[in-house]
Specification:
Elements: H1 3-7, E1 9-14, H2 18-33, E2 37-38, E3 47-52, H3 57-75, E4 81-86, H4 87-99, E5 105-106, H5 112-118, E6 139-143, E7 145-146, H6 157-161, E8 165-166, H7 169-181, E9 186-190, H8 199-202, H9 207-214, E10 222-225, H10 236-243, E11 247-252, H11 260-265, H12 272-285, E12 290-297, H13 304-317, E13 321-326, H14 344-367, E14 373-382, E15 385-389, E16 400-403, E17 414-422, E18 426-431
Parallel strand pairs: 1-2, 1-3, 3-4, 4-5, 6-9, 9-10, 10-11, 11-12, 12-13, 16-18
Antiparallel strand pairs: 7-8, 14-15, 14-17, 15-16, 17-18
Helix pairs in contact: 9-10, 13-14
The chain binds iron/sulfur cluster (SF4).
Length: about 425
Amino acid sequence: MSEITQTSKINVITLGCWKNTVDSENLLGQLALNNATIVENSDDADTVVINTCGFIDAAKQESIDTIMEAVERKNEGKLKKVIVMGCLSERYKNDLITEIPQVDAYFGTNQLREVLKELDARYKYELLGERALTTPSHFAYMKISEGCDHPCSFCAIPIMRGKHATKPQEEILAEAYRLAAKGVKELILIAQDSTYYGVDLYGERRLGSLLQELSAVDGIEWIRLIYAYPAKFPREILSVMKNNPKICRYLDIPVQHASDDVLKSMRRGITNRALRELLSSIKSEVPGVALRTTLIVGYPNETEQDFQTLCDFVREMQFHRLGVFTYSEEEGTTAAPLGDPIPNEVKEERKATIMEIQKDISEERNSRLIGSRAKVLIDRHEASFAVGRTQWDAPEIDQEVYVKNGSQLRVGNFYDVKIVENTEYDLYAEQS
Ligand code: SF4
């Protein structure tokens, strides 16, 4: 082992999605096994590794800005080394080498060994559950597969993350047991499409059996399902969700749009009617389930009528949680030849309109929770509040519950509370 790792102070900056978070945690875990010095703050570092995102314009710009900041600090002699990894450099490596040559090395999304070598560290072994968590220690993201086989016209992720690759069930279980032994109580299952789990490796969808096996892990109390793909949705998992108290009654299922013409052009493989039928059956088969979705507005062929169809759909489906992206033209995708004809201000207007509809739905839904009780997992303290989440809320993207006079409550513990107040997107509670 050469000196650089022993003396270097390495900071890893993670941008983008939770899949990047897991990749950075694996890198940090490997560096820890090499006795590297990891620093939280890039100001204290002499080596910075930037794990980039290349999903849409805004995310790409954030990645480039972060790289430029690091390069500037290197030019000022405040940094010795700048390394870039992840989706942006997976997609634009040659352009980046030409345009920002001050970066010491560029790596893609699946080059952990090469990044470690660049840091004069050695890849030790598969870190099943030993990655260095960057989340609070009571919850962890669990990547169950990599890549995606779906043909969504607007999406560049398959270009950056490759074909769908299922992580073997025994590896996921080994990781879950180790994470539980370290105090993790909530596992958040992530993938590009978590419902496709098993198809490539086992020749069948295996998410149901994976959920069953994970729920047998002692110490794990919540298992949360993120990124379910609506078309060909494996309904057999609904009874697993219904009958297994450890599986959160929560499902993140991005639908992206609701107009048949737009869904067809997006190559989503599903219609408005089938979407409504699927979502209604999920709600009836899993009583009390919270549905989260993501939408795209401003897609090239989206007419005013298509947009009204989407608004009606949002009003009708009454999602618990909802996020909206404005369409971003991505080269190399099948939608790119359609151009980007809808002006940004129209896209922003449509996004604001949907969020206004959702705000009212969320407000009304939250006000109905007043007086009810809920089990809350405490994530942090803020002033005199203990702040946590119910099983209906994922970290970072969903609602929070502010427990009054909660300074005695312990982070990482569950508590039963009574909901006493609400805002459109948060709840206030008292210990019960
Ligand atoms: S399911 Fe569609 S939107 Fe999601 S990662 Fe795959 S191609 Fe992209």
